[in-house]
Amino acid sequence: MIKKLDKLILKAFAGPFLLTFAVVEFIFLTQVLLKYLDDIVGKDLGTLVILKLLFFLSVTIVPISLPLAVLLSSLMTYGSLGEHHELTAIKASGIALTRILRPVWLVSALLAGVAFWFNNSIVPKANLKAFSLLWDVRQKKLALNIREGVFYNGIPGYTIKVDKKVGPEKDILMGIMIYDHTQKSGNATVMLADSGRMFTRFGGQYLGLELFRGHNYIEQPDARDRSASSFVRQGFKRNMVTFSLSSFNINKTKEEYFQTNRLMLNISQLFKSVDSTQKVLAHRRRLVPLQLSGYYTYLRFDTLNQAAYRRVAAWQVPPQRLIALNPAMAEQALSRARNIESFMGSTSQGLFETARDSAEFRIEIYRKYTQSVAVILMFLIGAPLGAIIKKGGIGVPILISILFFIIYYVLSILGEKGGRELEMPVGVGMWLSNALLLPAGLFFLYQAYNDSGLLETDFWRRLAQRLPSFPRLRRLATPVAE
What's the 3-state SS for the chain? Predict the structure, then answer.
């Protein structure tokens, strides 16, 4: 049964958590959009496509947003309780700090479980939807944008140039020139018009150009003399030209093409990919000695083969003498050594790429666990630190949260890079940030449990006095009587 104390703390935590989670989602979503901004701008995608892309991308960043939201909201919650002396009153009634932290701790553990399920079940599907849609957006051409005095070749098979665009909607064109390349015969067909009107037809699937007072110029080859040609000039007062705009639509790519990517797989599928990659790596390693054997010459040696004995004995002289005795043999050996070096270089690079692919799949497996555990870790840092600093609001908590999250993020990137480049075990690299920040969280919890003034000057002065191995530091920390 939830007691009044738990309701008070959870109510104080719920508001900041929802607010900070929304803000963090917005910040990370903005960062992702800036990354793909060049692929989106200027393509007239439509509101529905943009909303779908924003939704799928926002789902993919939930696992990284939850830890920061928990860190900031827990720090704000307990900092505000300490700032308004509610935390002191609760402690004065005989309730330990661990009991005060318990409701938010349980919520954080629940959020960690939800984050793991979300990361394993929902995020792969959202990644599949988001990146397949993003691929289609990248393949889509820029929106139709015919500018004044510039040749426009965005419509397949045609090049259009207009001197001026007038009218309230810029749909009246002056000085129109159209090159027709649909026959793939160069600039054999040219259309000129004094003016025209531009509009869309059949629900925006086609572009219509109604031309006025112009001529068509068509170059026709001479059937009797292939090197000669003639021009045909046709005049018109009004001419209607229609262009297909199908190339400006988004072509839906089958999602099956993206399903083998590691970002679109859950844990069981990732384990299967790791197993298959490891089998391929082991098979390639077993083939290396067999492939190397072709670069060597083997001689059968026994007591009866005196010629072979003398030949092998000749090889056991210094290289300079061997070159002088048999230059052809030395050149052959040098050529084989170069071939071995080249083969081993390409083979080792291939083995490294296969091992890195295996590491990539294992990184995604560990990521689903580490990002979930990070939710509890951030609570372990934020809640005791909020009780120590006794500052609520969005000032000091935001600064401290950003500091610790940057540390966590940098350590995560370094560990992931080390695992990907095989500089350290993948598990060590992926758990590096959590392992290094866990002692800090336990230290803050210990200090908050003992009501330590961690951010006060007296705390550090007393700490320096307890260090006998640093007498100078202790002397500096001791106040001097005036």
Answer: CCCHHHHHHHHHHHHHHHHHHHHHHHHHHHHHHHHCHHHHCCCCCCHHHHHHHHHHHHHHCHHHHHHHHHHHHHHHHHHHHHHCCHHHHHHHCCCCHHHHHHHHHHHHHHHHHHHHHHHHHHHHHHHHHHHHHHHHHHHCCCCCCCCECCCECCCCCEEEEEEEEECCCCCEEEEEEEEECCCCCCCCEEEEEEEEEEEEECCCCEEEEEEEEEEEEEEEECCCCCCCEEEEEEEEEEEEEEEECHHHCCCCCCHHHHCCCHHHCCHHHHHHHHHHHHHHHHHHHHHHHHHHHHHCCCCCCCCCCHHHHHHHHHHCCCHHHHHHHCHHHHHHHHHHHHHHHHHHHHHHHHHHHHHHHHHHHHHHHHHHHHHHHHHHHHHHHHHHHHHHHCCCCCCHHHHHHHHHHHHHHHHHHHHHHHHHCCCCCHHHHHHHHHHHHHHHHHHHHHHHHCCCCCCCHHHHHHHHHCCCCCHHHHHHHCCCCC
